[in-house]
Specification:
Helix content is 44%, strand content 13%. It has 335 residues and is of the alpha/beta class. It folds into three domains: 47 residues, no CATH class; 179 residues, Rossmann fold, CATH 3.40.50.450; 52 residues, Arc Repressor Mutant, subunit A (Orthogonal Bundle).
Length: 335
């Protein structure tokens, strides 16, 4: 079967990889004689050459690429999930889809703390992973933007066609991702966003990633759907602990109760994969230098560095675990 026929089988008959794969070398007519009769009837009733022509025209206009499950550029980890898409549509550099990837997701209504933590984690993690997210407002957009700021590679998985920008205000982010990474969807070009498509999209975010980091999320956040898929696929789930009195942290704290790895530093994630963080002029040297100068309380350090106290406390905790500093009273000193 050729690409047009595979496309048609998926679009009009909802045939899956498992149904198509054993018959790839057969003619379409032969396949239809052997396939599920109900799906064959659906396929024949819905088949429309005009729809296929419009898709072909849109592909030429947008320069989007169609990647089938059997193509070299298909994401390797995505092949391992129970229901991999037959087709992916991609805009940008599709070669990044084969690289080691980590998902970073969270609430659309992110707090200043959530955005700050996302930036700090992603600046480090993007040195070692392609960062995958969903281009939604909040944590997703922050993750993509941070990767682009530091010159990394990022992939946005959409719940609509890759030729549709959603949310529309993210047009600049969308264009930059295409230049420096890839925008991907399993939906045909021209497909508009719909509520039911986002959970389906989340399974691809989880399926393409070695693990999923949830930075900040409420109990009803779609980020928890991504985390659930990640766990179902046998991938790692990481969650940043949050304030127990804040609704936006209920989801991440619940994930930790359910067995997600609690992380307070990018090195916690890197260590899971045997990666030693490269530190150019890292936080460790800066905080040690401040303590040597007598600036030894979290409030003083945060004020001097123009960062949040929470950020300073996370790094001080890591230094305590490394045996570099110890706490006495409300201050810290070198060991």
């Amino acid at each position: 079967m050729n690409l047009k026929e595979i496309f048609a089988l998926r679009l009009f008959g909802s045939f899956t990889v498992k149904e198509i794969e054993p018959h790839l070398e057969e003619d379409l007519g032969v396949f239809l004689e052997k396939a599920n009769p109900l799906k064959v009837r659906k396929f024949k009733e819905r088949y429309d050459e005009e729809v296929l022509k419009r898709q072909d025209d849109l592909l030429k206009k947008t320069k989007a690429k169609v990647i089938t499950y059997w193509d070299e550029d298909y994401p390797p980890l995505l092949r391992e999930i129970p229901d991999p898409p037959v087709l992916l549509f991609a805009l940008g550099n599709e070669s990044v889809l084969k690289e080691r990837s980590l998902a970073v997701v969270g609430t659309r209504k992110a707090s200043g703390y959530g955005l700050s933590v996302t930036k700090r984690f992603v600046k480090v993690l993007s040195k070692y992973f392609v960062i995958i997210s969903g281009m939604a407002f909040g944590i997703d957009s922050c993750a993509h933007n941070t990767v682009l700021e530091v010159g990394g590679r990022t992939v946005a998985i959409l719940g609509n066609g890759v030729d549709i920008i959603y949310p529309s205000s993210n047009i600049k982010l969308y264009e930059e991702i295409i230049k420096n990474g890839c925008v991907v969807s399993e939906y045909p070009l021209g497909t508009k966003p719909a509520k039911f498509r986002f959970p389906e999209r989340n399974r691809l975010i989880a399926g393409m990633s070695i693990g999923t980091l949830v930075v900040e999320a409420g109990r009803q956040s779609g980020a928890l759907i991504t985390a659930r898929y990640s766990a179902d696929y046998g991938r790692d789930v990481f969650a940043v602990p949050g304030d127990v009195d804040v609704e936006r942290s209920e989801g991440t704290n619940w994930l930790i109760k359910m067995g997600a790895y609690p992380v307070t530093s990018p090195s916690d994630i890197l260590g899971m994969y045997g990666i030693s963080e490269r530190r150019e002029n890292g936080e460790k040297d800066i905080l040690v230098s401040l303590i040597k100068k007598g600036i030894n309380t979290p409030d003083e350090m945060a004020q001097r560095l123009n960062v949040s106290v929470e950020q300073v406390l996370v790094e001080l905790t890591r230094l305590e675990l490394e045996g570099v500093v110890e706490r006495y009273g409300g201050a810290y000193r070198l060991i």
